[in-house]
Amino acid sequence: MSLLRVRAFAKCVARRSLWEGGSVRGALAHCCPLCVSTRSGAVRRISESAVQLQRRNVSSVIPKTGDAKKHVVEQSQLVCVLEARIQQLRTDAVLDVRHAEVQFVKTPSSGRGVSSGRGPKSSSQEKTDIPKSGAKGPSKSQQSRWMEKLSQERKNKLKKQQHHQQEIRRTVKEKAEAESKDSKRSSQMLPGTAHKTISTTPKKTIPLLKTNRGFMKLSDKIRAAVSSTAVSTAATTAKVSKGKQKESKNQQPSEEMQKQAAIVAEARAKEQAEVAELERRLNQQVTQWTSSGISEGPEEVSKGTACGDIQLSICSYMEACVFSGDIDRAQSFLLSQHRVMSRRKQLNTGVYNIMMRVWAKKGTLNQIGRLFILLEEAGLKPNLGSYSAALECMGRNPSCSPRVITRCLDHMKQDGLSVDHLFSQCVFRQDERDMVLKAIRAIQPDYQPCLNLTSGERYSSLVQDFYTQRADHSYPKLDFTQDELRERFKRQLSVEQACTVTIDSVEAAKPVTKNMAKMRKLLTEKRIQWQKILLQALCEHKMTLANTNTKDYRVNLYPYLCLLEDREYVDIMIQSVAHMPPSGESLKILAGNLGNRVFTRYSVRQKYQNQMVEKLDKIYSIYTDLLAKETKEYDVLPREQWCNLEMEHSSGPRLQGGETSWPYIVTLELGTCMVDMMVKNLKINSDALNSAHDRKLIPILYHMYTFRSTRQIGFIKPHPILTQMQQEAMETELIFDSYVMPMLCPPVPWTSVKFGAYLLTPTKLMRTLVGAIQHEVLLEKCQSLHAVLDSLNQLGNCAWRINKPLLDIIISIFNDRGNDKLDIPPPLSEAPKIDHFNPQDPTYTASDKAQMKREMISAKKKCSEMHSLRMDALYKLSIANHMRDEIFWFPHNMDFRGRTYPCPPYFNHLGSDMTRAILVFAEGKPLGPKGLDWLKIHLVNLTGLKKRSSLQERLEYANTIMEDILDSADNPLNGKKWWMNADEPWQALACCMEIANAVRSPESTQFISKFPVHQDGSCNGLQHYAALGRDVIGATSVNLMPCDLPQDVYSGVAQQVEEFRARDAETGLKIAQVLEGFISRKVVKQTVMTVVYGVTRYGGRLQIEKRLKEIDEFPKDSVWDASHYLVRLVFSSLKEMFTGTREIQDWLTESARLISKSGYSVEWVTPLGLPIIQPYHRTRIQVLKSTMQQINLQINHDSKERPDTVKQKNAFPPNFIHSLDSTHMMLTALHCYSAGLTFVSVHDCFWTHALTVDSMNKVCREQFVALHSQPILQELSNFLLHKYCVQLSTEAKNIKYQEYRRLMLMLAKVPQTGDFNLQQRSPALGEYE
């Protein structure tokens, strides 16, 4: 029983054991003094940390029978036992835990019960000390099993304490001897610097005293590194415990104990000196870190988001009211929130500014004055937006007195705000800026805004030369004229304005049958009918919401349903029905998609209303001068050019920012409302497909419940009639949102966190979990994101086109029942038939029914998977076919680790083998002297052969198979089909075609090639670990060390696994014998690759299971056992090959564990200055109540919740390596751009023209060396120490000193590096995986 529960129980019993004096006195004769004071009617007090709890009034209870005395005696005996148990549990706790003192207060001697806390004080309130060794019961004859149990536990406790004391003496002596040996070496190093490498081999550690949860065991050397913090605590606790066990207080400590105490004191003093020196050294760095722009403590993000969701909901609601013209609703809502103090606390200055903008447009200065008064009442200060609205209103009002403007400017100055900051930081809309400037010039006629208020740009040392030394830079141009680029801009603008794109399906090439025509006609008629029904239902629902007699402070959906035209809402709903999968969709996902579509259209309408589109058109037209081929050369980057143009054309609205995003709960609620209308109103005749049925109207969508794992979720499923109609119609058109399509013009360069990529469609710079705002908060505070933004712009500026010959071949196979071997999914007509059976049929046995049920479930799952894969391929091929004659671009953004991704979700170069094969560069370059060789080497790499061969050997092999290469290019479907056996068959076929065209050209060196050649890293994660730790063995395995032949770590692991398997097979292990001949590089590759990214044995088993299922010859009934067996062998092989890597992994893992245990999320900054925070927190449930159902939202990214320690520590090593990987890619992208190279990436796989492969490899190697020449781990250690140790308050350090000290020592102990010289060779990206 825990200490708190024992106390609570004792407190409860003490309250209930009060009675009248006459019935008690006879029993008191046999009680101990403690029990007497308790049964006299005491008021129990618990004082903890000097906080006195409120005195409680306790009423007396009078027993009705003579049995009450016996019951009272038993209760008082239990009190004695429990109080003794409390004292015993105290001795189990660690010394730095402060416990409450339990005291009993005697009641007045009158015996009339307990006096009220409000009555006069009694003169007989004496404190009774709790006996240290327990308390005696009323009599020996009444001794119960509680007393016996307590006595036995006391004996066991004494034995354990004696054993602990012996262990402490021995371990302290061993530590003293070890420290004396290492004292010379450690004294020469800085405090906190690791003087030995972290090993994975177990080490004997110092046992801690047993707590109420048992012994703390230190399992590895990571925790042993900080176990010294527990030595002094354990020793001191042992001394105290032993002192309490002494029978005589006058006994003097023995000579041995004095020596032990001296050793412990010396160790503690040394450790405290080390911590003090480390604190002193860190405090000296505070100024330097503060100037870096990331100086806020770890608690500031969570504080800043405490009311974020509520404030965001209020702002979005009011802006929706204002946008739809319902000013009165917005004003009354604000006033209702302001009147009630509890709701007023949820408001911020931005909420009041929304109404200030409205009244500023109307020139109503007195209303703005009232809002300033409300701000003061709310305890808020006006900000730049408030004064901007006031000055705008003064500028619009011709009769405004100059004295009023002067007074406004004086108030601004008193609040520490300047006029220049007004123009540089405020987000102006329409003509607001001009009106503000007009008001200021009424006082200062010659005033000119100073927009560039930065004190100088700060760059990382990695890119300092890139930005400051540009003499040899040669930025590439696009192969377009200015007029062509401007025309493309207008086309893209019209696409985004419409928000949707309608394209032809590749299935349209099929001949139209009579049934297809019938189904298409029926669907068209029904959709027209459904549109009318939904329009009427939407109007009725809006009227209901508008007339609902609710309180003003209640938020409803009415403003959100007035943002667009009614027909637009209906079109969104009809479109979602057309895309509904036959198996249905989760209500939460479907509602979220509908709400997001409404928000996207609303954002586009906002930009038109704010007059941003006209300014965007003007600036982009001038911006094309930087990109067009016929214009002059510039020495500025696209981001810099765009910012310069915005400053030159500062009049009018500001392009960057200004839109308020919707909270996820609002998006979901709006979408749920639309789904509810669809389910209730969309119906079809039951005899639509079969006239034999009785005619009645039935819903086409059903709201049902299903289970996902152990959770019951709402599900929207289409009726089988609708599914059959859509499948048989095979409609010729597909409707997509505009952001799904590639852009028809170069993307707008990223210039800030909130502006870039698409022209009108809202896009986030960083992809995050829905509702997570901590990433955005960090990005907005960061002032050194230029290198990150420029690398994203470089990736987005690469122009693409379609490989039309290959696309036609793929479409022909797609429409001809597909091909599983070539990853072309077949249609649902090829799906297995689902056999239904009657469970009540007596002819089936129980086993037959169970088997048929399993087969039916398996068939349904297979059909669902086939439909998903088929639709995915249909979307990709249809988009590619739509863009077949176009040149297009992929705007990029990134995830929270910095890894970059194209924004269009379906069709991009990060897709499958099929998708990559049909993409080529829009610009071609001649092959040059070595381009053809690189094409041949690239082809061999795509086949998966010759992994351990040198580049020259691969080239020679390609020359020997030229006949197969040319045959594949000429007769891909009717020839030898050599290309079909490659690992990446479609890319191999595309490469065969390119090689054939090159060798048949008059001069191969002059052949213009648009084909991208890939250069992939040799297990990139292990490369980074080897470079961080300067690990010679690891560096050799992943081609960081010079070798005669390229090393292939995957083949090496596969070879070692095969050796283990052969050995087990000889001993008669059946599964090892079954696996003979099936262990290959491909089977183990994914697991080896992801081990360094934190994959578990469970995840690794699933990966191997998937690979084994792909082998047709492997027995399917052995897949489960084989995957379990192989994952164990793979992990054992990696443990033997990469021991050095685990040292860094363990340090990162343990550091993250201690940080999250302290209550903070792990945060760091990449070498390029990108701030990263892990969004893993404990899950909280938020319930959304709707007319359909309650939706439980599991939110695990809320920064107000405590961090999820398991996820934080497991994710830190892979996320940190991912961030280094993305940093290397960004550095390579920037320097390739400055060299005029075409460059794109798929994470660690880099693409360029065959002509420039050597140049790109050189840049890649140089940037890898430059990156890892930085003291990355030491800088990480410094940052974490600054973030989680330096800025902790003194009070926090004192409260959790042991925790704080352990964290500080761990973060300071950076793993020692090896002897590998990084300058010998950098990563051989030419050696393909």
From TrEMBL:
Where in this chain does the record put each DNA-directed RNA polymerase N-terminal domain?
Answer: 490-797
Provide this UniProt record's keywords sorted from A to Z. Answer: Coiled coil, DNA-directed RNA polymerase, Mitochondrion, Nucleotidyltransferase, Transcription, Transferase, Transit peptide
Q: Which PROSITE patterns match?
A: PPR (PS51375), RNA_POL_PHAGE_1 (PS00900), RNA_POL_PHAGE_2 (PS00489)
Q: What is its main location?
A: mitochondrion
Q: Name one GO cellular component term.
A: mitochondrial DNA-directed RNA polymerase complex
**Enzyme Commission number(s):** 2.7.7.6
Checking SUPFAM superfamilies in the record gives: DNA/RNA polymerases
The record's InterPro entries line, in alphabetical order, gives: DNA-dir_Rpol_C_phage-type, DNA-dir_Rpol_phage-type, DNA/RNA_pol_sf, PPR_rpt, RNA_POL_N_sf, RPOL_N, TPR-like_helical_dom_sf
Catalytic reaction annotation: RNA(n) + a ribonucleoside 5'-triphosphate = RNA(n+1) + diphosphate
Query: For bias kind Low complexity, which ranges apply?
Result: 108-123, 229-240
The stretches annotated as PPR repeats are 348-382
In Gene Ontology terms, what is one molecular function of this protein? Answer: DNA-directed RNA polymerase activity
**Cross-referenced PANTHER family:** DNA-DIRECTED RNA POLYMERASE, MITOCHONDRIAL (PTHR10102:SF0)
Family the entry assigns: Belongs to the phage and mitochondrial RNA polymerase family.
Q: Report quaternary structure and partners.
A: Homodimer. Component of the mitochondrial transcription initiation complex, composed at least of TFB2M, TFAM and POLRMT. In this complex TFAM recruits POLRMT to the promoter whereas TFB2M induces structural changes in POLRMT to enable promoter opening and trapping of the DNA non-template strand. Upon metabolic stress, forms a complex composed of FOXO3, SIRT3 and mitochondrial RNA polymerase POLRMT; the complex is recruited to mtDNA in a SIRT3-dependent manner. Also forms a complex composed of FOXO3, SIRT3, TFAM and POLRMT.
Q: What does this protein do?
A: DNA-dependent RNA polymerase catalyzes the transcription of mitochondrial DNA into RNA using the four ribonucleoside triphosphates as substrates. Component of the mitochondrial transcription initiation complex, composed at least of TFB2M, TFAM and POLRMT that is required for basal transcription of mitochondrial DNA. In this complex, TFAM recruits POLRMT to a specific promoter whereas TFB2M induces structural changes in POLRMT to enable promoter opening and trapping of the DNA non-template strand. Has DNA primase activity. DNA-dependent RNA polymerase catalyzes the transcription of DNA into RNA using the four ribonucleoside triphosphates as substrates.
Protein name in the entry? DNA-directed RNA polymerase
Recite the lineage of the species. Answer: Eukaryota, Metazoa, Chordata, Craniata, Vertebrata
